[in-house]
Design goal:
The protein is α+β, with helices and mostly antiparallel strands. The chain has helices spanning about 5-25, 165-185, 185-205, 215-225, 235-255, 265-290, 305-315, 335-365, 365-380, 390-400, 400-420, and strands at about 30, 35-40, 45-55, 60-65, 75-80, 85-90, 95-100, 105-115, 120-130, 135-140, 295-300, 325-330.
Amino acid sequence: MGNQGKVILILPFLAIAVTLFTTVASSAISLNFGETISGSIDPAGEIDTYTFSTTADDRILIRVVSLTPEFSPVIVLRGLNGTEIKRASGFRAFDLFIEQVLPSTGTYTVQVYSGGTAKGNYSLYASSLLAPQSTVAPRTTSPAPAKTQGQNTTAPIREIPSLIIPAATAGIITLLVGIMSTFFEESLLHGLSVIWEKIDKVLRKFLGIGGKYTWEDLEKKFLAGENVEIPENNLWIAIGGVIIFLAFLIELTLYSHETPYDASSPIFIVSLAFFVMLAEIGHDLVARFSLQSMGGKKLMELSLLGSVVTILTGIMGFVVTAVLSSKVLRKSENIMQEAVVTLSGSIFNLLVGMLVLLVTLVLNIKWLALAGAMPNLAYATFSLLPFYPFEGKAVIKGSIWLWGLMFFVSMMLYIYVILL
């Protein structure tokens, strides 16, 4: 086929594209600054477009609140020539803000669309410091969204999500991990633990960290009744805390919505750092004191592979706290007692996470859930995984039902915070 034939084939598609663009640009409904309208993205690929005119140096605020639990919207502010000025988006972002000083007088564009594959409803609110009565004209790729006239209120607060989705998800994960630990512990999970631990040993030897002792030597001396001095864990705890803090900061920077205290706020950063270190130090201290009550000791080391996993999962938007590995020196053969002692650190994290979450829901301070509840619930959850470098194997040996209850509750609340 020659070039002329190819051009003839392309022309109908160009005509369709131009027609669609013209249709999208033609429909419009006006809205004054200070009003709230309701919109809908259905199907998920739809783009709702709004235009408004204002003057140079005007500071405008655009707020979009998702009214559907699974729907995560995206806002894009475009300039006079269509160039993107600013956007607000992110996985699990349900309450978005754009605040911007506009450089020139003219007509600007705001686009709202789905950040994923979900469709849903939203409310949009726009305000202007210089021109509170200017108009905003929405244009949609489907029939224009319904609007409410004469309202001078901010966008409604999104309803708190129910526990149905977190509970169902946590239940499925708990069941799968329980099945693997029961029927595949000697093959799958043991193999994973061996490979992970060998990689850690190779990396520690390569980097020259970890000291001259070996775990096998310490355990042999301890069981023989010799006095064993456990190396200090403070350095590893501090380094582990920094890595976990960075992982959560990366996650919240990439995926969290904009709030008065977002990932760039000093208050948010200090709060996140405090609660991460509280989760790390509190878990270790409670577990260590519980272990000492039964005459045991605890060795903690930095898992280098786990540190990489922690950072990567932060980039992916779901932090798995795998930084530290711990091993227990004990003489007691009471596996139930060992299970309870092992659980003590996770119980501390769960209680702190629940307390912060309760304060969040009562006072409606969502950023506090992200900074405080999320790190503690993550630590409570993932420390109970039944393979190296986690601690769940000892709990499952004592009581798989006790492990299942603790893992389910921690995982459910962790997912719940994510969906807030």
